[in-house]
Amino acid sequence: MNCQNCKMMTEDGCSLCVTCELRFAGTLLRLARDVMPLHDSLDATLHPGGHSPVRIQTATPPTPIRLDVLDLIDMLDATARELWHRLDGIDALDWRKDKRNEDLMATLIACAGHPKLATVADAGLYMHVINDLARKVDTVLDPPEQRREIGTCELCETMLTAGAADQWVTCPVCGREQRAQTVKLRRLKTLCWDDSERGSAADISKAFAVSGLKVSRKTITTWEQRGKLPRHADGYAYCDVYRLLIGPDLTKSVR
Ligand SMILES: [Zn+2]
Ligand SMILES: [Zn+2]
């Protein structure tokens, strides 16, 4: 038989290969972990960014509950219960026979650890639906446009991402917790002390903005036009821009 997800050959009687089964179980467990932050995100006065929430005062009185999040929780709840019924062989039309009264988190965990997860006939379909829901949950908890790359982990060099309000970041690879500001400054230092680091005006402007230094793309190109900033074949040197940026005679025009 072929795995319904990755199409690789797999054991007879299995709908998912071992790798996909593990991945499916992992996604279910991750969703179980997200149930609480998701419920917290229902509060519309809470700034989105589930792992380091900050309360905000909105200009107009907000809807007390975020309906998109409510819908998402409902959908996740229905899907998890349906999957549990499939796994446990309870007929969908006879769902009242299910005497379990578990909450969503427990249901997700129970599904992840179910011995039939890889053998149930439509495992691939459920994996697809669950992956889709997991992506939506991620968008609610950590809106992608609010997280950006701030620099590399001090231990393992993995690129770390953080929201604008995050004080601390945890490396997803080695688990090291570090101050977001330290990571940003270390990145800036590497960029500016190594005079072989080059980038376009846009790259440099973006990298500096992350570390709290404001220099627009246009300022950089203007410096070049005025003969203050050399342009190399592979772009501007970060250290040159940095020197101009903090140089005393230019402080006024930049700030
Ligand atoms: Zn597979
Ligand atoms: Zn790390």
Overview of the molecule:
With 255 residues, the chain is mostly helical. The protein folds into two domains: 18-142, no CATH class; 148-254, no CATH class. The chain is built from nine helices and six strands, in the order ααααββββαβααβαα. It has a two-stranded antiparallel ribbon. The relative contact order is 0.10. The structure holds zinc ion (2 copies). One zinc ion (ZN) is lined by residues 153, 155-156, 158, 171, 173-174, 176. One zinc ion binds next to helix 1.
Strand order of the largest sheet: 1-2
Number of continuous helical runs: 9
- Overall shape: it is elongated
Mean pLDDT: 84
Share of helix, binned = 40-55%
Number of strands: 6
Question: How many domains would you count in the coordinates?
Answer: 2
Strand content: 5-15%
**What is bound: which ligands?**
zinc ion
In terms of structural class, how would the helical and strand content be classed? mainly alpha
Main sheet makeup: 2 strands, antiparallel
Low-pLDDT ranges? 250-255
Q: What is the CA-atom radius of gyration, in angstroms?
A: 25 Å
**What is the straight-line distance between the termini?**
65 Å
- Please write the string of helix (H) and strand (E) elements: HHHHEEEEHEHHEHH
